[in-house]
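Inverse folding, one chain.
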């Protein structure tokens, strides 16, 4: 489970950082050739590349998720099962007591 969370956090961070880096690079003329573009072309190109970078991260995350082993059988949490069984038993006992009291009132 920790590996899944690490992948999710990493993909989320890249999904935020990649577009910001692209936009920063274009606005500060760090990316080669970005200084030669007009202001509107620079804005359009940087926005387009930022959107593409987010979509690429999403695609890579989906590919990583599909490569996860699917043959693991999931086991329920034992503490949850114990609480659920106790709750069912308590509910059944309460219902049978209530039914018995109702019958006594009718008779």
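Residues assigned per position:
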């Amino acid at each position: 489970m920790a590996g899944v969370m690490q992948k999710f956090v990493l993909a989320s961070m890249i999904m935020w950082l990649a577009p910001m880096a692209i936009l920063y690079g274009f606005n500060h003329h760090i990316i080669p050739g970005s200084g030669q573009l007009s202001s509107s072309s620079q804005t359009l190109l940087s926005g387009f590349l930022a959107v593409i970078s987010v979509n690429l991260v999403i695609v890579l995350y989906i590919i990583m998720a599909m490569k996860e082993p699917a043959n693991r059988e999931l086991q329920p949490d034992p503490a949850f099962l114990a609480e659920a069984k106790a709750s069912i038993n308590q509910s059944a006992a309460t219902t049978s007591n209530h039914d018995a009291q109702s019958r006594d009132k009718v008779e």
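The two ends are 58 Å apart (CA to CA). The helical segments are 2-27, 39-66, 78-106.
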